[in-house]
Amino acid sequence: MYQDLDVEYENSQRYKDAGAEVMSQQQYEDARQEIHWDIAWQIFDECNEFNDTEQHVDLNCLEVDDAIAITKQKIFDLATIAQKEFPRRNHILNILCSDDMMIKIADNYSRKTVIKNVIHDMIQNELGLNNTYLALERTILVKVDAETMNNPILMEW
Asked: If one looks up domain 51-156 in CATH, what number appears?
């Protein structure tokens, strides 16, 4: 996946004394991240080929970190549409999660292990958005409207 980039980076380091353009470690890391996101979005697009992703998002095909970032992006996209095109209308984003999105977390108070959906946890606790979680269906319904863009995290997105 990163072979061409690795060779380019190694050659830039090896031949820098000969006048080759040097790729910094930061440029290398940025390029790797860009490749990673390109692949994640391609996988997402394939998985959601027949979905209207302004209404329904299927995360079954993604790694957890990718699913979190793409979910934030899709909420941001829908909030932008809500704010610019339909400011008086509520939108619902239906997010289908996989079993991979479930993690075990130690509960410090009861000393038990709790299973949480990381996507729901991010929507509920990090973004603080109005949502309904249907645990048995691994589905999250998120209310998105023009005010959603006022969320501090989405404003920085």
From this structure: 3.30.1370.110
Per-residue confidence at 5, pLDDT binned at 50, 70, 90?
Answer: confident
**Cα Rg for the chain, rounded, in angstroms?**
20
Of residues 29 and 108, the one with the higher pLDDT is 29
Amino acid in the structure at residue 130: N
Q: Which amino acid is at 102?
A: M
| Domain layout of the chain by residue ranges | 1-47, 51-156
